Amino acid sequence: MTVSAVAEAPKADLERYFVLGTVTLATMMFAMAVTNSYVVLPQMQGSLSATQDQIAWSVTFNLVAMAVLTPTSGWLADRFGRRAVMLWCVAGFSVSTLLCGTATTLEALVAYRIAQGALGAPITPLSQAIILNAFPRHQHAVATAVWGMGVVVGPIIGPTLGGFIAEAYNWRWVFFMILPVCVLSVLGIWIFITESQSDRNNRLDWTGFLALALAIGSLQLMLDRGERLDWFNSLEIIVEASLALIGFYIFVVHSFTSTDPFLRPQLLLDRNFALGLVFALVFGALAFVPMVLLPTLLQDLRGFPDSVVGVVLAARGVGSMIGTVTVVWMSRFDPRISLAIGFLSQGFSGLFMAQFDLNVSIWDAMWTSALQGIGNSYLWVPLTVLAFATLPARQMGEGTAVFHLIRNLGSALFISVCVGVVVHYTGVNYSVISEHISEFNEAFHLSSVAGGWNIDTLDGVARAGREVERQASMIGYINAFYLFSAVSFAIVPFIFFLKLPGAK
Predict the structure, then answer these.
(1) Which of 126, 234, 489, 499 could cysteine-pair with 347, CB 3.0–4.6 Å?
(2) The pLDDT of residue 242
(3) Which DSSP string corresponds to 280-329?
(4) What is the Cα–Cα distance from 8 to 1, expressed in whole angstroms?
(5) How far is CA 2 from CA 9, 13, 14, in A?
(6) Which run of H or of E encompasses 122?
């Protein structure tokens, strides 16, 4: 070996670790942006004069944008090169994050969050591809583990720091605080990431892509607005449902008839992968619902400040870290066992949350959040292993895109469903409970009751009305948590239909 070759070897290794540090930072930035905004949902709701289901649009449409754009990551990288796409996506993500913090209307916030989700969608898959390309095969496990820490650490730092900053200033700083990390990520990509080969002749199936985008977007709008508009009694909901059906019809027909479709239906012929998509849908459905529901419950009904809510959500990140460490030890056993433990953990966390009341403690909220984090960690690795265990290597890229699309779609749709459950049962139970607020109810003539809610005065009636709303909302949250738990438990029996890697 020549002197120059000896000198170049350490340099090459050092460059690899700079690449690893850069993409890990970008991934952590993305994970922080996804999780820390949940802390300030109640603040944003009040600031923008939105209802609970309306402010949830900032989450659901962000996830929909990620779901739709994630499958385009491979095409974008092939067409324009990984470095160029990463640079523009991180830069665009940074600008959209800044704009989120400046939004003055709900419509503007939702639009900026859509842009944030769309531009952030390629960051995770491209980061992983860059790492695998930069490191030799025998170092893939270590490099991927280091990179994965960004996904784990981001949800701990983001909500914790975001909660304290939002409490000291306002919700806008939850977005502004990410900007230094964004700038460092852009500089790192500019300096350390080298360009991959591009193919300018690579084409995207625009018919399939636009049909799928139309279908998913219309379905999401229908679910988000259905409860408020009384579902199919509204012309808007009928139109959105029709567009969703038309979009899905065009997508399916085109996928089976096109020579080069956006997503190949032949992937579904693999049993493990087809079942894996069902599990990915459920995994996505369970992933973010508590993070959307808990902040509003803890702030609106319990009166906890942003800093406490941030710590509660950060406990989920700590649980994820614990789960990530222990699931490595579990890898020596049947991966279906880890999968079962993950879904059961989610199910029991939902069951325990369904026992919350208006006196729920910080500790109860924290340990149930941590249990969810552990469950998520136990699900992700074995689910990925089993879903792709029997899929041919030539279909891995496309399979990964479909897998992430279904996962993000599950998150967006189930958040809308659960928020709709909260809104629906809040309204129903408010009507039922308020019927008992009457001078003819003997309970209000008891001194212990009349002292707080003297319905002979306007102030007493108002106090009684606020308490009825709190009680009705709590019942709505409890029903949503029961639904969360039921979905978690219902999927467990189907786990053992999955084939083990290498099984005949």
Answers:
(1) 489
(2) 93
(3) HHHHHHHHSHHHHHHHHIIIIIT---HHHHHHHHHHHHHHHHHHHHHHHH
(4) 11
(5) 11, 17, 19
(6) none
Low-confidence stretches of the chain (pLDDT < 50) are 1-11
Q: What digits encode the pLDDT tens for the residues 357-402?
A: 888 888 998 999 999 988 888 887 788 778 877 777 677 667 777 8
Domain boundaries, the chain: 10-204, 205-261, 263-504
Question: What CATH number does the domain located at 10-204 have?
Answer: 1.20.1250.20
Residue 20 DSSP one-character state:
H
Q: How far apart are CA 308 and CA 311, in angstroms?
A: 5
- pLDDT attached to residue 459: 61
The C-alpha atoms of residue 64 and residue 208 are separated, in whole angstroms, by 16
Q: Are 26 and 187 in contact (CB under 8 A)?
A: no
pLDDT at 8: 41
| Exposure letters 388-413 (e unless 16+ CB within 10 A, then b) | bbbbeeebeebbbbbbbbbbbbbbbb
Q: What is the pLDDT of residues 233-264, one digit of tens each?
A: 888 889 989 999 999 899 889 888 888 787 78
Single-letter residue type at 208: G
Q: What is the pTM of this model?
A: 0.80
**CA torsion, ordered 150, 366, 423, 287, to nearest 10 deg:** 30
Q: N- to C-terminal Cα distance for the chain?
A: 47
Architecture of domain 263-504: Up-down Bundle (1.20)
- Structure tokens belonging to residue 145: 């583990």
- Determine how many CB atoms are found less than 10 A away from the CB of residue 459: 9
What share of residues in the chain are helix, strand, coil (percent, to 5)? Answer: 80, 0, 20
Distance CA 60, CA 228 (A): 16
| Structure tokens given for 225 | 């607005």
- pLDDT (0 to 100) of residue 437: 64
The yes-or-no answer to whether 10-204 and 263-504 have a common fold is: yes
Instruction: Give the pLDDT of residue 484.
Output: 94
Lookup: tokens for 276: 């894996």
